[in-house]
Amino acid sequence: MAASFPIADADLCVKCGLCLPHCPTYGLTQHEGDSPRGRIALMQGLALGSIPATPKLETHLDGCLGCRSCESVCPAKVPYGRLIDAGRAALNERLPQRRRLPRLIGAALAGRESRRALGLLLWLYQACGLQALLRRLGLLGGGRLARLDSLLPPLPALPFSVRARGVDGPADAALFTGCAGDLADSDSLAAAQRLLQRLGLRVALPPQQGCCGAVYQHAGLAEEARACMQHNAEAFAGYPAVLATASGCSATLLDAPDLLGKPQGAALRAQVQDIHRFLLQRWPAGLRPRPLRARVAVHEPCTQRNVTGGGDALRALLRKIPEIELVELDPRQACCGAAGSHFITHPEDADRLLQPKLEASQALRPDYIVSSNIGCSLHLAAGLRRAGLKAPEVLHPLTLLDRQLGPASPPGAA
């Protein structure tokens, strides 16, 4: 038996099948091995040694999005997210070569200096006109290379050239910057900091913080994920609240007890709060955004819907904008297919899951699409561009709210 696999948690699953209608990958393939109960059965067999680690088994386990929609409807409260991470770790024990790619991606994203280098290369690629030229001449083709290029976020300014600065000393909340957000979503982080400051709150940005570790955790690299979590637990120790603009990062930080145990993991989990709910609870009656006569479509990420919560607070904040027309991009709230790195590693499945969102955008014709997770935003924006649709601006809901409040003193720069 794989020493680290939680077989008792897997045995909670009674294979009732109530999760099947809610599983995006089962919806795509109608294959039992791509359903939550099917994957649990495969992981049980792998852990007990009755099923070998084959390429087909890898395909089924790696195809899971980790959306955790199954958890939200499971009557037995099976901790599926914990199981799929442990199942991939069990695969890693038998197939060590699987660790190479996630370790490479993690090394590139987790280190601040490596992120600086990536940001500089991306900025140069765009600023010198090479990206525009390659796209105009069609030299990227129409395959995977062109698709990867379409996912790159536009960087109008050199990343890290202006670094946000938080308060020194006691603070009301600490802002988690993450790695992808730090590199590709600095506007959302700056907007969040300004909003918190408008409410008279002291905001810290601990410089010692780092990647949440999701890229390691969901690849079954528990030791690397634990090191990231330990690093952040120490960086955020003592702050009354830890807030992230990316719901995926918040969801990962909430898993701290699984990686760090008690009391340290439990302490970090207790600090993590949904930023939309945090703002809504403290919103002053006299703070009124400017009117916005626009249709805004909400895409709620799976991590927010199934793990962190706060979707109702997000909508309540946006409704504070007078004249706004708020609609749901997808009333079913199905997964868009981004799912961490899934939209890069499984492009065909990710694009099939994205297609209903693109069709909804074409039908609704919103002026904006808002999402509280950077991966979803990149995936949605790239899909709209590739489809040649009249593309609404895709942005974080807090960025839109901050705009409607007008100019404010920007977060400090160092």
How far is it from the N-terminal to the C-terminal residue, by CA?
52 Å
Do you know the CATH topology of the largest domain?
Rossmann fold
Q: How helical, in percent, are the residues? A: 40-55%
In DSSP terms, counting alpha (H) and pi (I) runs of 4 or more, how many helices? Answer: 24
Q: Which strand order does the major sheet show?
A: 3-2-4-5
What's the gyration radius in Å?
21 Å
Unreliable segments of 5+ consecutive residues: none
Overall morphology: globular
Strand content: 5-15%
Number of separate structural domains: 4
Largest sheet: 4 strands, parallel
At the first level of CATH, the class of the largest domain is: Alpha Beta
If classified by CATH, what would the architecture of the largest domain be? 3-Layer(aba) Sandwich
Total strand segments = 10
Q: Mean pLDDT across all residues, rounded?
A: 92
Structural class: alpha/beta
Which terms would index this structure?
414 residues; alpha/beta; Fumarate Reductase Iron-sulfur Protein, Chain B, domain 2; four-stranded parallel β-sheet; 52% helix; globular; 4Fe-4S
Detailed description of the structure:
The protein is of the alpha/beta class and 414 residues long. It is 52% helix and 8% strand. It has helices at 7-10, 24-29, 36-48, 55-62, 69-73, 80-94, 100-110, 112-127, 130-137, 144-150, 180-184, 186-198, 214-217, 222-235, 247-253, 256-260, 264-271, 275-282, 302-308, 311-318, 342-345, 347-364, 374-387, 397-404, and strands at 164-165, 173-176, 203-204, 242-244, 272-274, 295-299, 325-328, 368-371, 393-395, 412-413. InterPro entries: 4Fe4S_Fe-S-bd, 4Fe4S_Fe_S_CS, Cys_rich_dom, Glc_ox_4Fe-4S, Helical_ferredxn. Component of a complex that catalyzes the oxidation of glycolate to glyoxylate.
